[in-house]
Give the backbone structure.
Amino acid sequence: MNLTQSDFAPSHRQSPRPLAAWGRPPSRLLAWLLPLLALLLALAWHPARAAEITVSQASIEHSDEGYRLSVSYDFDLNRGLEDALSRGVPLYFTTDVQLTRRRWYWFDESSVSATRTVRLSYNVLTRQYHTAISGQLQQSFTNLDDALTLIRRPPRWLIADNNTLKSGDNYNVGLRMRLDVAQLPKPFQVNALNNSDWRLSSDWIEFTYKPE
C-alpha cells in the first residue's frame, strides 16, 4: 500500500486561539513587575569586574567628647552598582570597628565594638544623589563623584567616650568597610549574594592605639 502526505493530514485544522482569549495581566501589575524584572536581569547578566575597597588612612584621635576614628578609603563603583543606583536602588556602606585589649591571664578584652552605615541613593525625579550617615547627617549632591567623596572621607566618628579606654594600655584596632547587602530591598538580596558586582569590601586592617 502506498502512503501519501495526504493520508497523514488531519481532516480539519484548528485555527489559533485569539490572544485576547487567554486574558491579560492587570496593567498596574505589569507596570510594577517589568522594571523590577529588567533590573534583576541586568544585574544577573552584567559582566563581573573585581572591585575592592582599600583603607588609605586610619587613626584614633582623643577629643573632649571621647575617642574619634579618622579614616579614608579608596574605591570606585563598578558598572553594575552604578546601574542599580541610577534605577533607584540605595547602596549601604557599613564600617565595622573593634578595639581589644590584650590580657596575659585570660582572653583579650573587647573594649569597643561599633558600626556606622552611610546610605547612598539617587532621586530620579530631582536627579540628585543623597547620603545619610546612620540616618542622621543628610546631604544632597548633583553628581556621583561628590557623593562618593563623603563615603571615601567620612567625618570623624566618635566610637568611645573618655571612660572607655585605659590610659597607657595598648589596644588592637580592627577596621573594615563593606557594601552591606543585608540592608538592600528584599528582591535584590538574593541576587546580590550571588553576583560578584556586589562583593565590595575592604580587608580587615589592624593597628595599635595607646591612649595617653
The beta strands are 54-62, 67-74, 91-101, 109-123, 128-133, 137-141, 157-160, 171-179, 205-209. The radius of gyration is 27 Å. Residues 176 and 204 are 5 Å apart (CA to CA). The mean pLDDT is 81.
